[in-house]
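Quick one, tokens below. Sequence please?
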């Protein structure tokens, strides 16, 4: 009962956040955090559950962003249609990128994904008629309902609902026969093949799902920012997304949520007066410390802490 009350209280706090906090920058930052959590959730699924390494998720992020922007601005399609198209193109790109994973593993596969991210980034810069190149893509419409533009708070609720949906889908996949086969492939793909399970199909599905979530995140970001430039889609961003998944916990359902939101907000908490030149360095040091001393990530630690709190309360009520 108390656990349900705690969960209900947490959900209520999330719902009330845009009402209690009217600061536009804080709301924008929280929206970015939810977007990063969606993308990091896909990485947790791809790397933590399926055992496939990707250091090029910024490429899918860019595909989703520019695809949705192009179809809504240049072709005049509604925003939901543009987002769906961005997801679909990202999934197709994920299917293509999964092909090298049939033969390559670990370090060699990571090099392929890095190359993919760099290729997409170069296309973003050079396909000026489509992407705007280094000059940027302007005039991307913000979220609206009919003729009424939504507020950052309303967008926050939409992003939160999408994040919950993504985690729920991943939860259902993980606890299905398909998910169990994927976890087996993560442990030993040769033994999985010997049991009559096609690891190729599993890898295609894993890359497609992770790419779809990255494309969704990119499309959401495009319409949130209203402007796109090549800077958010570099290899540095791909490594940042991997750091979010690792810090949150690669083998844990809440890893992407904890890491995505945590590493998005952490630099903002460290922006003290006089620290403008050092806060990113301190953020990197904190990430290194977490990886060294908490290799399983923060997600399991937070959940174990909550379990201990609830058990302690129950034991206290029994003694009373």
């Amino acid at each position: 009962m108390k656990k349900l009350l705690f969960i209900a209280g947490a959900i209520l706090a999330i719902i009330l956040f845009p009402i209690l906090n009217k600061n536009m920058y804080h709301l924008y930052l929280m929206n970015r955090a939810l977007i990063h959590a969606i993308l990091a959730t896909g990485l947790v699924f791809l790397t933590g559950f399926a055992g496939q390494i990707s250091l090029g998720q910024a490429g899918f992020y860019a595909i989703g962003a520019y695809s949705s922007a192009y179809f809504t601005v240049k072709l005049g399609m509604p925003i939901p249609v543009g987002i769906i198209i961005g997801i679909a193109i990202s999934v197709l790109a994920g299917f293509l990128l999964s092909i090298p994973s049939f033969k390559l593993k670990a370090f060699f596969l990571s090099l392929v994904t890095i190359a993919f991210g760099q290729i997409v980034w170069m296309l973003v810069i050079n396909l000026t008629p489509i992407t705007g190149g280094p000059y940027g893509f302007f005039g991307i419409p913000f979220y609206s309902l009919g003729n009424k533009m939504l507020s950052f708070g309303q967008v926050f609720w939409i992003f939160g609902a999408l994040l919950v949906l993504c985690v729920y889908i991943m939860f259902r996949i993980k606890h299905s026969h398909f998910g169990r086969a994927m976890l087996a492939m993560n442990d030993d793909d040769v033994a999985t093949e010997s049991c009559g399970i096609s690891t190729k199909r599993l890898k295609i599905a894993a890359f497609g799902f992770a790419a779809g979530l990255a494309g969704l995140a990119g499309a959401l970001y495009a319409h949130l920012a209203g402007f796109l430039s090549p800077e958010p889609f570099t290899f540095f961003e791909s490594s940042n997304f991997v750091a979010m998944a690792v810090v949150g916990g690669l083998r844990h359902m809440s890893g992407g949520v904890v890491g995505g939101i945590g590493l998005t907000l952490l630099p903002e908490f460290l922006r003290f007066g006089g620290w403008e030149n050092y806060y990113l360095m301190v953020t990197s040091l904190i990430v290194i410390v977490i990886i060294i001393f908490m290799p399983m990530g923060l997600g399991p630690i937070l959940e174990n802490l909550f379990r201990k709190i609830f058990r302690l309360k129950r034991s206290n009520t029994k003694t009373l």
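The chain is about 75% helix and 0% strand. The longest helix spans residues 199-225.
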